[in-house]
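Design job #97: recover the sequence.
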């Protein structure tokens, strides 16, 4: 079933607001290559602190309180706590409402400063998007990545991938700029000539 994006995301927001955990297909390329649009999905939990329940997905079992205990680890400056809501931490992927455009996006928290979050898609190399804790609608606790491989956001493997991807941002950016430079200035192609056919 094809729906208008605004209507679809309004429905997603309503589900999260009433405390439901939802399964959301990944669209677009902003989280590429880790989350592939059209191939992967994520499981989102509301920001409000969950009860002691385990969620059974098609391919895995997710424990919401285990995710919360995992999120509480680390330096205080890397996450933001609050009464009655989940801890939002650096490298968490969140569904949030963009403060300028009002669009709803699924991107990764790159820095946390109090209640201010700096967010960017894994496949984006532009400036940060700014959001506050109140702009966050849901937090990713699991799903699939790299075209269908299941993950839990509190697992060692996922944490390693997230850390590697965020810490290598500058290296990847310079590599991308270097590739674009060489492609632009040293591109090889077919040389067109005005050849006269031989009779």
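Job complete. Output follows.
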């Amino acid at each position: 079933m094809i729906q208008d994006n605004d209507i679809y995301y309004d429905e997603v927001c309503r589900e999260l607001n009433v405390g439901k955990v939802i399964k959301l297909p990944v669209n677009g390329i902003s989280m590429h290559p880790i989350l592939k649009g059209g191939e992967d999905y994520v499981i989102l939990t509301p920001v409000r602190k969950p009860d002691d329940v385990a969620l059974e997905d098609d391919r895995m079992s997710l424990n919401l309180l285990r995710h919360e205990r995992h999120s509480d680890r680390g330096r205080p400056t890397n996450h933001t706590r609050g009464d009655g809501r989940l801890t939002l931490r650096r490298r968490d992927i969140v569904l949030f409402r963009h403060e300028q455009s009002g669009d709803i996006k699924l991107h990764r928290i790159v820095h946390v400063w109090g209640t201010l979050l700096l967010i960017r898609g894994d496949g984006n190399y532009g400036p940060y998007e700014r959001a506050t804790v109140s702009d966050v609608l849901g937090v990713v606790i699991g799903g699939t990545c790299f075209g269908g491989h299941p993950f839990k956001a509190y697992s060692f493997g996922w944490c390693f991938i997230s850390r590697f991807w965020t810490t290598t941002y500058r290296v990847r950016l310079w590599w991308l700029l270097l590739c674009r430079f060489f492609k632009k200035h040293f591109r090889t192609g077919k040389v067109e000539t005005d050849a006269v056919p031989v009779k």
